[in-house]
Write a structure and sequence with these properties.
The complex is a heterodimer of chains A (219) and B (192).
Chain A lengths: L3 E6 L8 H10 L8 E10 L2 E10 L8 H4 L5 E3 L5 E3 L9 H5 L6 E3 L30 E3 L5 H9 L13 H5 L5 E5 L6 H8 L15 E4 L3
Parallel strand pairs in A: 1-9
Antiparallel strand pairs in A: 1-8, 2-3, 4-5, 6-7
Chain B lengths: L1 H29 L9 E2 L13 E8 L3 E8 L4 E7 L2 H9 L16 H9 L4 H4 E3 L26 E2 L2 H7 L24
Parallel strand pairs in B: 1-4
Antiparallel strand pairs in B: 2-3, 3-4, 5-6
Classes of the chains: A alpha+beta (219), B alpha+beta (192).
């Protein structure tokens, strides 16, 4: 069975936040909330200073902590390795928020995006959105690995990530080619050879969550 | 006559003996005899009951860290045993509903999550809330969320999930959230 994931090359990331913006636009993520966030800090002391950028989103873990934490079984991992929230089941208790060691889950709070009138973007009715974008106020929401873009394609037997239409938005827009999407179970997928070649790592392995997002930390 | 007199004396002696026996037995039965034994066992030692008598166990007193078990035996003897409850005991009692921690699943203070961690387990705020803000290199996406203030002017501080890992890992004392396992022959990260 396929298990889709991401590879992020930190040595290539320039901190432009295009992935962050694309994620927001693609997934109706409201202001003040992020499904993908680029962490940034400085290392060293003058004159040997450098900035570090670490884009982070849901790790779609093999052993997600959010699933056993949820008291109503609203979070599931599908057959392609994507961890998804069922907005109809979620009770907004935030236990998943507390359990996730990566801080990937947030709560949709609704409200106006900007003061005054609604933006055309907000006016798109829920029934015209993908079910993964029909958020409910006070309930959890998180990165879906853009499953709405490639879910149908993979059901048809198409390999996701081979066309722009079936590639996660964050991968598509990265100007530095720092992000790669692929099937971690398929040995012929280029993502696996790159993970092996660059000795990519998973974040916070000590939690035993086995993230499906890998990071290249060296050039 | 002397033989009859001897028999009469013997009967009197027997009657006196029987009466005295009955009086003694009555006094023994009617006397309210209560034996109280108190044994304090420090956690995590498990106390084993070796008595073969049938008894019912009722939890009578619950304080944040102490559970008093009252063991009522069928005889007049009452044995009270006090032990410091282990985390496993508390977790079981919470799941079985013996400790009321509320029914509303919520992180809000005063509701189930904090009732369990702060009230029942008695963890102080700074056990989990360790600093006002996350360190710059702490890899946590929701760093953009401003910490909620417990009281005006007092911020509880952020929580490093490593604190949760201690109890919520595999074979930990709490509900398993993280599959990390640190056991014999394994080192940190081997469970990942």
């Amino acid at each position: 069975m396929a298990k889709y994931g991401l590879l992020i090359d930190l040595s290539r990331c320039i901190g432009c936040r295009a992935c962050e913006a694309a994620c927001k636009v693609e997934n109706f993520v409201p202001p003040g909330k992020y499904w993908l966030y680029v962490l940034e800090w400085e290392m060293g002391e003058y004159p040997n200073v450098k900035r570090v950028f670490v884009p982070m989103n849901c790790m779609h873990c093999e052993n997600p902590a959010c699933i056993p934490a949820c008291p109503v079984n609203a979070i599931t991992k599908n057959e392609y390795g994507v961890v998804l929230v069922d907005y109809n089941k979620c009770i907004g208790c935030k236990y998943c928020v507390a359990a996730c060691p990566y801080g990937a889950i947030d709560i949709y709070e609704g409200g106006e995006w900007f003061p005054g009138s609604k933006t055309p973007y907000e006016l798109i009715p829920p029934e015209k959105r993908h079910p993964l974008h029909r958020f409910q106020k006070g309930k959890a929401f998180k990165c879906t690995l853009c499953y709405h873009r490639w879910g149908e394609a993979v059901e048809r037997g198409e390999k996701p990530g081979t066309r722009p239409e079936t590639t996660p938005a964050c991968v598509l827009v990265c100007p530095a080619g720092a992000r790669m999407f692929g099937d971690l179970e398929d040995p012929s997928d280029p993502i696996n050879s790159r993970i092996a070649e660059k000795r990519a790592i998973q974040l916070k392995k000590e939690f035993g969550t086995r993230p499906q997002v890998y990071y290249i930390t060296t050039g | 006559m002397s033989e009859a007199g001897g028999v009469g004396a013997w009967k009197i002696a027997t009657a006196v003996f029987v009466i005295l026996t009955i009086i003694s037995l009555g006094l023994y039965i009617l006397h309210p005899r209560t034996v109280t034994k108190t044994q304090v066992v420090t956690s995590p030692v498990t106390t084993t009951y070796t008595t073969t008598k049938t008894f019912t166990t009722t939890y009578t007193t619950i304080s944040p860290t102490t559970v008093t078990k009252e063991k009522t035996v069928t005889s007049v003897e009452t044995v009270t045993q006090t032990k410091t409850a282990s985390l496993a005991d508390l977790a079981r009692m919470i799941r079985e509903g013996q400790i009321d921690v509320g029914t509303e699943y919520s992180l809000e203070f005063g509701k189930r999550y904090h009732n369990i961690h702060a009230i029942v387990l008695g963890l102080s705020c700074n056990t989990c809330h360790q600093a006002k803000t996350y360190p710059a290199d702490y890899l946590y996406i929701r760093k953009y969320v401003a910490e909620k203030m417990a009281e005006e002017g007092e911020i509880p501080g952020v929580v490093d999930r490593g604190v949760c890992l201690g109890c919520h890992r595999s074979n930990g004392v709490a509900h398993e959230l993280y599959k990390a396992y640190y056991g014999p022959g394994l080192t940190s990260g081997a469970g990942g």
